[in-house]
Amino acid sequence: MFSSRDTAAVARPRSRITSSFYWLAVSCLIAALATLPVIALLSEAVRGSEGLWEHLRETVLATALSQTIILLAGVGLLTGCLGTFSAWLVSAYDFRGRRLLEWALLLPLAMPTYIVAYAYLDILHPLGPVQGFLRWLLGYSSPRDFRLPDIRSMTGCILLLGFVLYPYVYIPVRAMFLTQAGNLLDAARMLGTSRHALFTRVAVPLARPAIAVGTSLALMEALNDIGASEFLGVRTLTVSIYTTWVTKSDLPGAAQIALSMLFLVVALVAIERWARRRQRYSGSAQKSTLLTPTRLCGIRGLLALSFGLLPIIIGFAAPALYLIVEAWRRLQFRGISADFASEALNTILFSATATLVTVAAGLVVAYAMRIAPGRTSLWSYRLATIGYAAPGTVIAIGVLIALGGFDRFVDQTMQQWFGVSTGLLLIGSGSALIFAYAARFLTIAGGGIDAGLSRIPSSFDQASRSLGRTPAATFTAIHLPLSKAAMAAAALLVFVDCVKELPATLLLRPLNFETFSTHLYGEAARGTYEEASIAALAIVLIGILPVILLARIGRVRR
Q1: 374: alpha, beta or left, given left = phi > 0 and alpha = psi -120 to 50?
Q2: Alpha helices, DSSP H only, in 52-112?
Q3: Distance between CA atoms of 15 and 10, rounded to whole angstroms?
Q4: How far is 88 from 352, CA to CA, in rounded Å?
Q5: 3-state secondary structure 222-282
Q6: pLDDT over threshold 50, residue 16
Q7: For residue 194, with 0-12 CB atoms within 10 Å meaning exposed, 13-18 middle and 19 or more buried, which class applies?
Q8: Are 355 and 498 a contacting pair, CB within 8 Å?
Q9: What is the secondary structure of 342-354 as a DSSP string?
Q10: Which of 46, 143, 297, 555 has the maximal Cβ count within 10 Å?
Q11: Helices marked H in 480-531 — which ranges?
Q12: Number of helical H runs and strand E runs in the chain
C-alpha cells in the first residue's frame, strides 16, 4: 500500500510536466500569432489579381527597388564608417572631452529619422536660418543669387539617415574594442605596427562581425523608414507600399510590394551571415586586458574632439535645438494645441498597452525555453521573434489582411444569424495597431527577458523542484525577483519604440485617431513645421530614456 506522502511524491513530476506543457503550449500559440501577419501577407500576395504583378513591376517596382538599394548602400557605407571610426576614437585615444563623447555619441538614437528630416527641411530651407546666414556672410540678398543644393534628394536622405543610425554600429564595435581588443593590439604594438596599420590591419578585421551586425540593424531601420524618405523625395519600397494602399486602396498591390520588401530583408540577413561566415576568434587562456588609450594633447586632441562632436551635432544637437526654438515660439504665439492632450493620451495609452502585451508574450516564450528546453520551445521563440526583421509597413499590411479578414467573417456571421452588423471590430478599435506593435517588437522583449533569465543559475531551478514547486511557483518566487531589471529595461525599450513607430501607426490607426508621430507626419506633409514642434520634442524626450539606460549600463560594465 502507498501512503498519502508516496502518492503526492509520485504526482509531483506529473504536475510539473503538465505545468511546463502549459507554458510551452502558450508559447506555440504566441509564435503562431506572431507569424500570422507574414503568412497572411504571403497568401494575399500569391493570390493577388490577374496581371497585377506585371503592372507593378513596370510602374512601381523598378523605380522603388533601385532607389531602395541605392539608399541602403549609401546608408550602410556611411553608418559603418561613422560608427567604426567613432568607436575607435573613444576607445583607442584619450583626450579632453572623451568621457562626454562616450555617451553623447548615443544621443542620435533618441531622434527618429522622420523627425530629423522634418527638422532639416526647415533648417536648410532656402529661406531658413542656415542659408540666410550664409547669404548674409557672403553678401547676397536673395535666394536667387545663392542657395545650397536641395536637401530633398537621394544624397540628402543618405546623409541624414547615416548620421542618425550610426549608433547601431558604434555600440557593438565599441563593446568589442573594450572587451576583446587589448591583448591583440598590445601584441601588434610590440611587433612594431604603426598606429594607422593597427586600425586598418588589426582593429577593423577584428571588429568585422560587430560591424556587420550593426550595419544590418541600421539598414533594417533605414528600410523601415517612411517619413524621412517621403519628406526628402526618395521613393522607396516602404513609401510605395503606403501610397499603393492609402492613395490607390490597392491591398493586393501593397501586399505584393511588401512581399518584395520581405525578400529584400531576407537578402540583407543572408548577406550579413555571409559576411561573418569565416569569422572565428579564439580567446586567450589569460585574462584579457583593456585597450590602453593613447593620450592626445593640444591641436590633436582638439581635432579628435571636433571629429567626435560632428555626428552628435548633425544627428542630434542641431535638430534638437531647432525643435526647442520652434516649440518655444509656438507656445508664445498660440500656446499648446487643443489636440495635444488627446494625442498624448493616445500615444501613451496605446504604447503602454502594447508594452504590457509584448512583455507578457516575451516572458512566456523566453520562460518556456528555460523550463522546457528542446526544439519546440526553441522554434517557438524564433518564430515569435521574427517580426523585428520585417519593416513596420510589412507587418502592418499583414495585420490588415489577417484581422480585416477576421472582422469581415464576424460581421457576415452576425448579419446572417442575428441581423446585426459588427463592423470592423479589431481594425476599427485600434486592437490591430496593438497587435502590430506586439508582433514587431516581441524580439526586444523576448531577447531582453531571455538574457536576464540566462544569468540565473539553473541550480536555483533544481533546488526549487526538489522542494516540490511548480514552474509557475518557481517563476514567482525566484525568476521574477531576479530578472525584474531585465524586464523593466525590455519594457522601456518596447514602450519607446512604440511611441516612435510611424509606418504601422499610419496604416492601422482608427479613423480620427492621432498620435505624436502621425500628427508630426501630417504637419510636415503640409509644410507647417512649427505646428508639430511640440509633439516632435515630446517624442525626442521620450526617446532619450533608453539612451540614458544604455549609458548607465556602459558605465557599470566598465
Answers
A1: left
A2: 52-56, 62-92, 98-104
A3: 9
A4: 38
A5: HHHCCHHHHHCCCCCHHHHHHHHHHCCCCHHHHHHHHHHHHHHHHHHHHHHHHHCCCCCCC
A6: no
A7: exposed
A8: yes
A9: HHHHHHHHHHHHH
A10: 143
A11: 480-482, 484-500, 503-508, 516-526
A12: 27, 2
Q: For residue 340, what are the CA distances in angstroms to 346, 372, 500, 517? A: 10, 47, 16, 12
Of 327, 362, 303, 357, which Cα lies nearest the Cα of 487?
Answer: 362
For residue 160, the tally of other CB atoms under 10 A from its CB is 26
DSSP secondary structure of 476-489: IIIIHHHTHHHHHH
Structure confidence at residue 436 (pLDDT): 93
Question: Coil, helix or strand for 135?
Answer: helix
Nine cell digits for residue 265: 530583408
DSSP states of 163-176 as a string? HHHTHHHHHHHHHH
**Strand-pair category, 93-94 with 294-295:** parallel
- Written in H, E and C, the secondary structure of 410-423 is HHHHHHHHHCCCCC
User: Please, are residues 389 and 268 in contact by the beta-carbon 8 Å criterion?
Assistant: no
Average pLDDT over residues 194-198: 71
Query: Which of 482, 477, 381 shows the shortest CA–CA distance to 26?
Result: 381
Return the sign of the alpha-carbon dihedral for residues 421, 426, 430, 432: negative
Q: How far apart are CA 134 and CA 136, in angstroms?
A: 5
371: cell is 523550463
d(CA 482, CA 519): 40
Distance, in Å, from the CA atom of 316 to the CA atom of 108, rounded to the nearest integer, reads: 5
The beta-carbon contacts of 264-269 under 8 Å, at least 24 apart in sequence, are 264/65, 264/68, 264/223, 264/237, 265/220, 265/223, 265/389, 265/390, 265/391, 265/394, 268/72, 268/216, 268/219, 268/220, 268/223, 269/216, 269/389
- How much is the pTM? 0.82
C-alpha Rg value of the chain to the nearest Å: 26
Q: Go through 390-425 and write b for each residue having 16 or more CB atoms within 10 A of its CB, e for each that does not.
A: bbbbbbbbbbbbbbbebbeebbeeeeeeeeeeeebe
- The 10s digit of each residue's pLDDT in 106-136 is 899 888 888 898 889 888 888 888 888 888 8
Please write the tens of the pLDDT for every residue from 410-442: 888 888 888 888 877 888 888 999 999 999 999
CA distance 38 to 395: 7
Q: Is residue 192 left, alpha or beta, with left meaning phi > 0 and alpha meaning psi from -120 to 50?
A: left
